[in-house]
Protein: Peroxisomal bifunctional enzyme
Organism: Eurystomus gularis
Amino acid sequence: SLTVLQALEDGLKRADADPSVKAVMICGENGKFSGGADIRGFSSPKRHGAALAPIVSLIERSGKPVVAAIEGIALGGGLEVALGCHYRIAHVKARMGLPEVTIGLLPGAEGTQRLPRLIGVPAALDIITTGRHISATEALKLGLVDEVVEENTVEAAIHLANKV
């Protein structure tokens, strides 16, 4: 939603400007990182406010380490947010993917560029063109995530953020 995008942008800008902040951790609520955009909003009139692609670029450009704590799902724009982060930790039960292609939409926040750079063209093409969801274990093997945990993902992400 626009509210979430605006809060993410504001939080990132505040963190970057605050010298006492050494790293940033991004997580979702209720055991889900992000299911991406609500496709019903695509048919609404042009809206004003934050857009996802510039926010993902803002995450990527941050001078401070940004760690994604992926629980549940990171799909579509949610995965694109995670791709903008410098590090990604996923819960063992997490699932990731770019399913919007199954309804004829291309990932719109530069996921089609970031994913191949991170995991290589063949693996990225498979994920981008099929829309399939991958497990955290497969994501680790591909290099999409840096670590898979069975316990508290947020605590693990904070630990990594403190370490880097």
Q: What stands out?
A: The chain has one domain: 2-163.
